[in-house]
UniProtKB/TrEMBL annotation:
Occurrences of domain HTH arsR-type (ranges): 4-99
CDD domains: AdoMet_MTases, HTH_ARSR
Highest taxon, organism lineage: Bacteria
Xref: SUPFAM superfamilies: S-adenosyl-L-methionine-dependent methyltransferases, Winged helix' DNA-binding domain
Sample GO molecular function, one term: DNA-binding transcription factor activity
Signal peptide start-end: none
GO biological process: response to arsenic-containing substance
SMART domains tied to this protein: HTH_ARSR
Pfam families linked: HTH_5, Methyltransf_11
Keywords: Arsenical resistance, DNA-binding, Transcription, Transcription regulation
InterPro entries assigned: ArsR-like_HTH, HTH_ArsR_DNA-bd_dom, HTH_MetalResp_TranReg, Methyltransf_11, SAM-dependent_MTases_sf, WH-like_DNA-bd_sf, WH_DNA-bd_sf
Full protein name: Metalloregulator ArsR/SmtB family transcription factor
Length: 339
């Protein structure tokens, strides 16, 4: 009984009214499994779009689901926090695993996710050659990931933010460390890849969103850990992305940056759109300090290969600002937010 949800009478009745209808309960079960569009839901439930939209509206008004826009598409998912959602999860947990309606919904959901994965794999395959070239130039992904896990350690992480989430690999790697996570990327194609990968890995406590790394549509000071994995070398002004990442951190929160050490492989500019040829320890330290962060550790991972081999560096920094304080370049951030 220790985990029993306690709610006021009115709130309890509102949740039960919203969830206590067959179609809406089926929707809640589906949205607990990840992000889905109205089109996905109509295919799974075999009901009209207006009817599905009407039920989703009622669930949103009851604060049981989140809705977010991504271009022309609207995605929905079960909220991750709150007493109302905790009660809904209890209700879903009470449903029979052998219920024929829910079993059929699950089969159709698997089909939707399989089609999503095939589309994502097509995009991935068309670009895999470029990524394979990059992998051959630096230390193995396994070594990088082991170093990330070691640096992150076992500090509690209620909320993780992964900027430039790409394939969603960081969200998978750190799944055992956080309670909830958000990945942000500017590429809708990559978001499709990330969603497919999260589905395949069975990661349901992370979600991905479309967004601008320089102007995140997210409230400040909401995350214990922010990660930026192999993103900064694509940016004209990486220091602004670091400042925006710092804005996301809770007091005492941490930022982990994984990128390349300085190198001279000029062909990466033309062939792979690299704007920066790596970052020195001093440059990164200066940017982090200006954003109110203190460097706690760095790690260089050398592949040991000759020629064009690249060194991967991992920086770990901690937020030293009190809540509500702004970094030194707050004026620049303010301009970005207004734009």
């Amino acid at each position: 009984m220790a985990n029993l949800v306690k709610m006021g009478l009115d709130g309890l009745v509102d949740v039960l009214k919203a969830a206590g209808e067959p179609t809406r309960l089926r929707l809640l079960a589906l949205l607990a499994a990840g992000d889905l569009t109205v089109t996905d839901l109509t295919e799974i439930l075999g009901q009209s779009q207006p009817r599905i939209s009407r039920h989703l509206k009622l669930l949103a008004e009851a604060d049981l689901i989140d809705r977010y826009q991504e271009g022309a598409w609207a995605y929905f998912r079960l909220k991750q926090d709150g007493k109302a959602v905790a009660l809904v999860r209890m209700l879903l947990g009470a449903t029979s695993e052998n219920d024929p309606v829910l079993l059929r919904d699950g089969e159709r959901l698997a089909t939707v996710k399989r089609v999503r994965a095939e589309r994502a794999q097509d995009y991935f395959s068309r670009n895999a050659a470029d990524w394979d070239v990059m992998r051959r130039l630096h230390v193995s992904d396994a070594d990088v990931e082991a170093a990330i896990l070691d640096l992150v350690g076992d500090e509690p992480i209620d909320a993780l933010l992964d900027l430039g989430t790409g394939t969603g690999r960081i969200l998978q790697l750190l799944e055992g460390h956080y309670r909830r996570a958000l990945g942000v990327d500017a590429s809708r194609d990559m978001l499709a890849v990330a969603r497919a990968n999260l589905d395949k890995a069975g990661v349901t406590k992370a979600t991905v969103r479309h967004g601008d790394i320089f102007n995140l549509p997210i409230d400040s000071h909401g995350f214990e850990l922010v990660t930026i994995h192999q993103v900064l070398h694509f940016l004209d002004q990486p220091e602004l992305a670091i400042s925006e990442a710092a804005r996301m951190l809770k007091p005492n929160g941490r930022l982990v940056i994984i990128d390349l050490a300085p190198h001279s492989v000029e062909r990466l500019r033309d062939e792979h759109a690299h704007v920066r040829l790596g970052f020195s320890a001093q440059t990164m330290s200066d940017w982090l300090k200006k954003s109110g962060l203190r460097v706690e550790g760095t790690r260089d991972l050398d592949s040991g290969m000759e020629g064009d081999a690249l060194t991967v560096t991992i920086w770990l920094a901690r937020n030293e600002r009190s809540e509500g304080a702004m970094p030194e370049n707050a004026e620049t951030l303010d301009v970005l937010e207004r734009n």
